Amino acid sequence: MRRAARRIALLTLLLILAATSISCSEIESVLKESGATGDRNTRVSPGAAGKALKNLEVSPPGSMAGYDREDFPHWSDAREFGWDVSDGSCDVREAALIRDGEDVVVGEGCDFESGRWLDPYTTRTYTDPLDIDIDHLVPLANAYRSGASGWDEPLRERYANDPNNLLSVEDNANQEKGDKGPEAWKPPNRAIWCSYAKRWISVKSDYDLTVNPQEKAALKQMLATCKKG
């Protein structure tokens, strides 16, 4: 009887922990938004995202001394980093364009023949893939000054090619954003502030990156735009 009671108590405790904890897999769960916007949105609740944000370490931005973008190898082999592509010759940039586009036709050697891309930052649509940049949602330089300065190259390469941290956007919007965090730049399209903040928190949670006080306040502001329910 005692053994059975202990088992029941342990099972109850595990169920409570499962219901209240914020797991990486929950934060990382992403799906394309309806309406084929090309954006991706976490299906985690605003409350859960807020709890995950509270769990992030708050620290002033670190030094950029020694930073070199080329120390984060990017546009690597797509399949190696978990991208779903039918052509083994596709790199990560090409895989992102395929994932985020509509009616995309790719020829031999992952050469783009046609397609449409709706930029989630500006809501404008483009048909030339050369007009599209692949944005690191949490920029490489931002990651560097919030913890990635101490990473080895394999981890930096994984980060630079992670599907959850990449988004196809209009090139001018991407250049305007640069390496800014949400405290200094937010998407002009306010409709995606909620999903943008959730995904930013997801990336920082997954890679144990810090947030600065102004960044945390901006993310809270963006989460406040999430629809209830």
From TrEMBL:
Domain GmrSD restriction endonucleases C-terminal residues, every copy: 121-220
Biased composition (Basic and acidic residues): 174-183
Signal peptide: 1-24
Protein name listed in UniProt: GmrSD restriction endonucleases C-terminal domain-containing protein
Region described as Disordered: 165-185
Family annotation (InterPro entries): GmrSD_C
Keywords: Signal
